[in-house]
Design a protein that fits this description.
With about 130 residues, this protein is mainly alpha-helical. The longest helix has 15 residues. The radius of gyration is 16 Å and the shape is globular. It comes from marine sediment metagenome. This is Amine oxidase domain-containing protein.
Length: about 130
């Protein structure tokens, strides 16, 4: 099976079983993208879950569990305010998102980011850089 087969037969984006890259620009609070990282969509009562959402495709059931928590919070009125990449009043995205987004938008940046994220000694640094406040 080729990536094209996966894309056409199973509707798996670009043949990626995780429905998106597992790179810093699409991890944690930016998966699948910052505006949809809380499992909610602009369409009322339409939620995302699956390997394209946090924590990715390698964690069985966690995506659905997290989406269910968002649904229950919305249904009971206990949902926290939704944060997007630009805050209220059009504020800039947190510096981590701007730096990581700029870095990960280039091929060399993705190469460096991938290698940095895989280094045990840099885990705290990459976790901090990927954090969304």
């Amino acid at each position: 099976i080729t990536p094209d087969d996966l894309d056409h037969e199973y509707l798996i984006t670009d043949g990626n079983i995780f429905h998106g890259s597992m790179m810093l620009d699409q991890l944690f609070g930016a998966r699948p993208l910052p505006e949809l990282a809380n499992y909610r969509t602009p369409v009322r009562n339409y939620y995302l879950c699956g390997s394209g959402t946090h924590p990715g495709g390698g964690v069985m059931g966690a995506n659905g569990h997290n989406a269910a928590k968002a649904i229950l919070a919305d249904a009971t009125g206990t949902a926290a305010p939704v944060r997007t990449s630009t805050g209220a009043g059009g504020r800039k995205a947190p510096w981590q998102q701007r730096v990581v987004g700029g870095l990960m938008s280039t091929r060399p940046g993705r190469w460096v980011g991938y290698r940095a994220a895989r280094q045990p000694a840099l885990r705290r640094v990459t976790a901090y850089a990927a954090r969304v406040r």
